[in-house]
Specification:
Blueprint lengths: L2 E6 L3 H16 L3 E3 L7 E6 L4 H17 L4 E6 H5 L1 H7 L4 E3 L7 H11 L4 E3 L22 E8 L10 H5 L3 E2 L2 H13 L4 E6 L20 H5 L7 H11 L6 E4 L9 H7 L8 E3 L7 H7 L5 H14 L4 E8 L6 H14 L3 E6 L17 H24 L5 E10 L2 E6 L4 E4 L9 E5 L8
Parallel strand pairs: 1-2, 1-3, 3-4, 4-5, 5-6, 7-9, 9-10, 11-12, 12-13
Antiparallel strand pairs: 7-8, 14-15, 14-17, 15-16
Helix pairs in contact: 7-9, 13-14
């Protein structure tokens, strides 16, 4: 039995796709082994969201080759999709696979074994990609929580982002196929799902082209403030109706999706966890304009207030980019004050990373790394304070915890708000749900 080792970098969508690739390799007769051991094949599922992600992707490819010089090394995903020439020029990977060919991993490896005299490239042309590459996992590797990818691609074209280049235009998985997959996962004993996509708020927009066959972007659909994504709501409601599914989490959402109309329906589905990730990127309107984000700070804050209207102390998390081209000290201070005012549960801080082929790469006013680092440290520190303050609001409350695994002698799990909790127990708590009195302390797992 040939051995294959995997290493994933990047987002929840990448995690889902790696799990599917693992499943396909097992079904084809391969044995999965740890990445840092000697294997016949190594698969690195790469990321390109930042320069650091590119560098880590290259490092993992080189690590695989060093671990076993005779192995077949496969580099898949966003890094090779956006830099095919560079990935091939590097000469370490034997096979590179773009984002729309991951499902064919075993067949591609078999083809390479037959050829075995030159590197193979399966990088896709995503400029006119309308076909959703269907994947369906049978069981979650974790057994308590499974990622469910229902959408791929993005039509937003934020000025800093290479993801539309790496992933192509929006395309959605049919609801019937989603329900089949979630039913299988529920039958496996997994009780929590995370519905995710590259741009989840765009789910289903491609099902409704205009009379000329053109697919709108999410910004176009939502520009007058009345758009309600009923396709997404339908998927959530039907998933909630599947026996065995006890919790539903949602991936990153657009602030403009959060309306009274949307939340009045969503809040009726009790299995949806009060844990929402709304991408912010900047708390300054001028910076948001340069980023080509189609909302204002005021609109964002209104979305947060709506969430707090429909849910009792929901956990709201976000992403922020510091050091975007042209960001002055005053603009950064606006962002810091807005974050303080909003009171997020968790803050994911990224230093702006210049990406080839994006508008922001050629903007004037590129910020020195030292300034980015200082601003990053300020917001990371603020984020830690806000996390602690949020958890104090739950001190003494009875919280529902789904336990996932035992680590360092303690069972670890999360509340519905995704607050991490630890508990000592002589009995196996993995996969169980318990109601506990929360001590108010925030301690990341």
């Amino acid at each position: 039995m040939k051995k294959v080792a995997f290493r994933n970098l990047g987002c929840k969508v990448n995690e889902y796709e790696m799990e599917y690739m693992q499943q396909r390799m097992v079904d084809s007769g391969y044995l999965i082994v740890p990445f840092d051991t000697k294997s016949d094949i190594y698969v690195i599922n790469t990321c390109t969201v930042t320069n650091i992600a590119d560098r880590k992707s290259r490092q993992m490819i080189h690590k695989a080759r060093k671990t076993n010089p005779d192995a077949i090394v496969v580099a898949a995903g966003c890094y090779v999709q956006t830099d095919e020439e560079g990935a091939l020029k590097d000469g370490v990977a034997d096979i590179i696979i773009g984002n729309n060919n991951k499902s064919r991993l075993p067949e591609i490896i078999e083809e390479y074994i037959k050829e075995h005299d030159k590197a193979l490239s399966y990088v896709d042309d995503l400029t006119d990609c309308s076909q959703y590459e269907d994947m369906s996992i049978n069981i979650s590797a974790v057994h308590t929580r499974a990622f469910i990818k229902i959408q791929d691609g993005c039509n937003q074209f934020c000025s800093f982002c290479a993801i539309p280049i790496a992933r192509g235009r929006i395309r959605s998985k049919k609801k019937e196929e989603i329900i089949k997959e979630v039913t299988k996962i529920a039958n496996s004993g997994c009780s929590e799902i995370v519905i995710t996509g590259i741009h989840l708020s765009s789910y289903g927009i491609d099902f409704h082209p205009d009379k000329d066959g053109r697919i709108k972007s999410y910004n176009e659909a939502a520009k007058d403030g009345t758009f309600v994504n009923n396709d997404l709501l339908d998927v959530i409601k039907e998933c909630a109706g599947i026996e065995g599914i006890k919790r539903i989490r949602l991936g990153s959402l657009e602030p403009r999706l959060i309306t009274d109309e949307f939340l009045s329906e969503l809040s009726k589905t009790e299995k949806v966890c009060p844990h929402f990730h709304l991408s912010l990127q900047s708390g300054c309107d001028e910076t948001l304009k340069r980023m080509n984000r189609k909302y204002t700070v005021e609109e964002y804050y209104h979305a947060v207030e709506l969430l707090r209207k429909y849910y009792d102390e929901p956990a709201i998390t976000t992403d922020v980019i510091v050091g975007f081209p042209g960001e002055t000290d005053e603009e950064f201070e606006e962002t810091r004050k807005f974050i303080q005012k909003t009171g997020f549960f968790e803050l994911h801080v990224f230093k702006y990373s210049r990406r080839d082929k994006t508008v922001a790469a050629s903007m004037k006013g590129q910020i020195p790394d030292a300034v980015k680092q200082k601003r990053s440290e300020i917001l990371i520190s603020l984020g830690e304070e806000l996390s602690k303050e949020f958890c104090k609001k739950y001190k003494g409350r009875i919280v529902e915890v789904l336990f996932e695994e035992k680590k360092n002698g303690m069972y670890q799990g999360h509340t519905r708000e995704y607050i991490p909790v630890r508990k000592a127990s002589d009995t196996d708590l993995s996969g169980s749900i318990d109601n506990l009195s929360f001590d108010g302390n925030y301690c990341k797992i």
